[in-house]
Design brief:
InterPro entries: ComF/GntX_DNA_util-trans, PRTase-like, PRTase_dom
Organism: Variovorax soli
Family: Belongs to the ComF/GntX family.
Helix content: 25-40%
Strand order of the largest sheet: 1-6-5-2
Pfam family, one: Pribosyltran
Protein name: ComF family protein
Length: about 240
Amino acid sequence: MSNPWRRRPSLLSSLLARVPSQCAVCRAWPSRPVCDACVTRFAPPAARCLGCALPVPHEVARCGECLAHPPPLDACLAACAYVWPWPDCIAQFKFRGRAGWAAPLATLLRSAPWVEPALEQSDLVLPMPLAPGRLRERGFNQAHELARRLAPQKTDARLLLRTRETPAQSGLARAERLRNLRGAFALEPLRAEAVRGRRIVLVDDVMTSGASLFSAAQVLRTGGAAHITALVLARTDPPA
């Protein structure tokens, strides 16, 4: 028998929000799942490339790769680097069915520089879609849970579609990842005109190479989107 809680993340989140919590990082009590002091310490604002959200010097707007090969994004914003303690927090949310993490992680994302203006100026907020098999496995789409807490009135989870499963991306170079994802995203055919001339925000939890976001953004660009901003909770940065 299927677990009904996996099909009702909004109810689960509502119940968890009423329960006193302990900070998952410093163990402060009572607290939100991640306290303000830990957010300040472990998710400080950082200079990042406007095209791919990789770290850059403060005086640099875009990295050399994005200048040489501009991605199909007008902006890409990340709340934090994908380093401790965030991988475990995101895993609790993404892989262990704890949808209650959506609210604090969305708050973390919203607090990052330039995210609030991007949401306010957008016409549509689209979560990165999951293929049907992966959605059944997890019980909910973590990107959708984040998106609907960032901008519930603008979020549309049925416009951008994942059309097929793709092989694992780990171990592949960026060009191979892009080839792997070719044709993996599409607009809902009967509503494709909804993106034409609109300002779109794409939401995802973790950005590694950017291949998935870039592939989805290219579909939106081809569909006539006027402006595309990607918002990601965490960005995998190269080794220092």
